[in-house]
Amino acid sequence: MHLARPGRAPVRGAAAPRLGEGARPRRDVTADAGEVTRLRNSAAELHKQATTLRQQLVAQLVDGGVPIRDIGTVVNVSYQRVEQIVQQGAPVAKTEIRAAAPHSGTTTRTKTYR
């Protein structure tokens, strides 16, 4: 496709611009594509490791009695996200959520043993 003007959407049916006679790309695009794939796979693995470590850290802090809002600050997520992490199966000891005070809008976790 050919751009009608710089910054504009391609025009359907227009011939693609041609490189000058004998012109070649300056880099090996196959190698670049392989590097992109390698980096994306590395990023996916690092993301998985970070998620696992965050779940373990949240569980450890909850078990230690740290308030949910403080945990959110430590792991750099909202307190609502901390609640989701806990509910999604972070290996936390049996706990329950209780309101800290009526109308305070905050919650704390306390261990319960059955």
Strands, helices and their partners?
Blueprint: E1 2-3, E2 10-11, H1 29-63, H2 68-75, H3 79-87, E3 95-99, E4 107-111
Number of helical regions? 3
Describe the strand arrangement of the main beta sheet, using strand numbers. Answer: 1-2
Mean pLDDT: 75
Share of helical residues: 40-55%
Structural class: alpha+beta
Low-confidence parts, pLDDT < 50 over ≥5 residues? 90-102
Termini separation: 68 Å
- Mind summarizing the main beta sheet? 2 strands, antiparallel
What share of residues are in beta strands? Answer: 5-15%
Q: Report the count of strand segments.
A: 4
What sequence of helices (H) and strands (E) makes up the elements? EEHHHEE
How would you concisely characterize the structure shown here?
With about 110 residues, this protein is α+β, with helices and mostly antiparallel strands.
What does this structure look like?
The chain has a domain at 37-94. Helices cover 46% and strands 12% of the residues. It has 3 helices and 4 strands, in the order ββαααββ. The protein has a two-stranded antiparallel sheet. Strands 3-4 form a two-stranded antiparallel sheet. A hairpin with a 7-residue loop joins β3 (95-99) and β4 (107-111). The longest helix has 35 residues, at 29-63.
